[in-house]
Design brief:
The structure is a single chain. The chain is an alpha+beta fold and about 210 residues long. It is built from 5 helices and 12 strands. A 7-stranded antiparallel sheet has the order 3-2-6-9-10-5-4, with helices on one face. It binds flavin mononucleotide. Flavin mononucleotide binds next to strand 3, strand 5 and helix 3.
Length: about 210
């Protein structure tokens, strides 16, 4: 396949969406849990979580445009500031996928998709019980991206939960042990296997490559 910008513009919407979404490669599959102002739980598949810094511990994700459809995750975070990020595990990947359906306001994806709400250490947003790695987040900033009406939602990590046996003495989390999955495009899920770990790369310490 070889495409120019003009070819990309000419593609039909679905083909363009599938190509441009999947050329990025594998992204982490996460579920974002929130509560509405009225206390109704909401859960949404999000694959755009990105690390922004460790001190303070900041993560961002891209929220799609809220102009034509209601974005419950986005409006709940605006209203309450708190949310959770829960890694999707192999055992419940299908349930997790269907949280992306556009359920009406007031309907809980936890209930519809048979996932379990969990409240830990009095955190004011629901975690996903089935998830082995989960983070409690507080929204600090929302950066509008004018180019396409999306927003970068930035939050600080408040709580981390992960199985002890999946974290080594230096703090690395082995996501192959927690059976987290990756996603390509918007509907193809992959298992993740660890293939290597290298030391911090320094120009003067190059091995024989
Ligand atoms: C694999 C996958 C990844 C997704 N990633 C994102 C994302 O990063 N940002 C986003 O706004 N929506 C993303 N979505 C779409 C949301 O899951 C979907 O719009 C959902 O209906 C939002 O629910 P809400 O209105 O309850 O927030 C993704 C969907 C799928 C299937």
């Amino acid at each position: 396949m070889k495409l120019t910008k003009e070819d990309i513009h000419r593609l039909d919407r679905i083909t363009r969406l599938n190509i441009i979404n999947s050329v990025v490669g594998i992204k982490a599959a996460n579920l974002v849990g929130t509560l509405s102002e009225k206390g109704i739980p909401n859960l949404s598949m999000i694959s755009s979580v990105v690390h922004l810094g460790s001190m303070p511990a900041l993560l961002g994700f891209i929220s799609r445009p809220a102009r034509d459809v209601q974005r419950h995750t986005y409006s709940n975070i605006l209203a309450t500031r708190f949310y959770t990020i829960n890694h999707v595990g192999r055992a419940f990947v299908e349930n997790a996928h269907y949280t992306s359906a556009k359920f009406p306001e007031g309907v809980s994806e936890f209930e519809k998709c048979r996932l379990t709400e969990e409240y830990l250490l009095e955190f004011p947003a629901p975690y996903v019980k089935e998830s082995k790695v989960k983070l409690g987040m507080k929204m600090l900033e929302i950066i509008p991206i004018k180019l396409n009406d999306t927003s970068l939602v930035i939050g600080e990590v408040q709580q981390v939960f992960a199985p002890d046996d999946a974290i080594d003495k230096d703090g690395h989390l082995d996501i192959s042990l927690t059976e987290n999955v990756g996603v390509s495009g918007l509907n193809t899920y992959y298992e993740l296997g660890r293939i290597a770990r290298y030391p911090y790369a320094r120009p003067e310490e190059l091995p024989d490559l």
